[in-house]
Amino acid sequence: MEKNIELEILGLSSNHSQSGSFTLVLGEVNGTRRLPIVIGMFEAQAIALEIEKIIPNRPMTHDLFKSFASGFNYEIERVVITDMKEGVYYAKIQSKSDLVTTEIDARPSDAIAIAIRFGCPVYCTEKAMSEGAVEHYEVEGSEEKSPEKQPSQKFVTKKEPSLKDFSLDKLNQMLDKAIGNEDYERAARIRDEINKRN
Questions:
Q1: Phi and psi of 105, rounded to 5°?
Q2: How far apart are CA 137 and CA 139, in angstroms?
Q3: pTM of the entire structure?
Q4: DSSP secondary structure letter of residue 148
Q5: How far is CA 110 from the centre of its chain?
Q6: What is the DSSP letter of 110?
Q7: Domains in the chain, start-ordered, CATH in brackets?
Q8: String of b and e for 122-151 (b: at least 16 CB within 10 Å)?
Q9: Which of 25, 79, 132, 183 measures 20 to 30 Å from 107, CA to CA?
Q10: What is the pLDDT along the chain (198 residues), one digit of tens a residue?
């Protein structure tokens, strides 16, 4: 059985390349990899509200899910990001009651919004992590990308036409800089352009 990697939420920011979308950045617990996931505005709001412990006037969809599950004595044990195909991530919500244990298919954004409401951990398979993660490590007080690691990166984002005009060497330099600045959206676009040429 494949070992799952525990993740934590590191940040949430607006996505400049896709209007109305956000980038959720997950980090490997006790590790150096970062997993950026592009999510919708509603899901970003649902995650942000719960992180900030802001209670809306009326229950949001994820709050309703929690009330419904709790009403039938279901517990959410964990959320697992299971796969990434063509830039799209897949997740499972693992839940149990007194009578049954089950897995529910979900978008990672919804699964994470639910996980933080239940206070349960979020994991990722090594396969999904290796396909989508960006590597970080500390060097003399600053974060830089490890030259030994060249993680693949595929996102459904608009490519910057100007990236096509740069050489592979220049693209690799730009990738290092973007990762050093924790600009994961730009890093993903540059990584896509490099992968297209290999």
A1: -70, 140
A2: 7
A3: 0.67
A4: T
A5: 12
A6: H
A7: 4-131 (3.10.690.10), 148-197 (no CATH)
A8: bbbbeebbebbbbbbeeeeeeeebeeeeeb
A9: 183
A10: 568 999 999 988 887 777 778 889 999 998 889 999 989 889 999 999 898 888 888 888 999 999 999 898 999 999 999 998 888 899 999 999 888 899 999 999 999 999 999 999 999 999 999 888 887 655 444 444 433 333 333 333 333 346 777 788 888 888 888 777 777 777 777 887 888 877
Six-digit token string for 87 = 């830039």
| Cα distance between residue 198 and residue 194, in whole Å | 7
Structure-block tokens of residue 76:
């959410």
Residue 18 token pair: 């896709």
Instruction: Please give the DSSP secondary-structure letter assigned to residue 149.
Output: -
Contact (CB, 8 A) for 3 and 128 = no
The helix (run of H) or strand (run of E) holding residue 167 is: none
**Location of structure tokens 């050093």:** 180
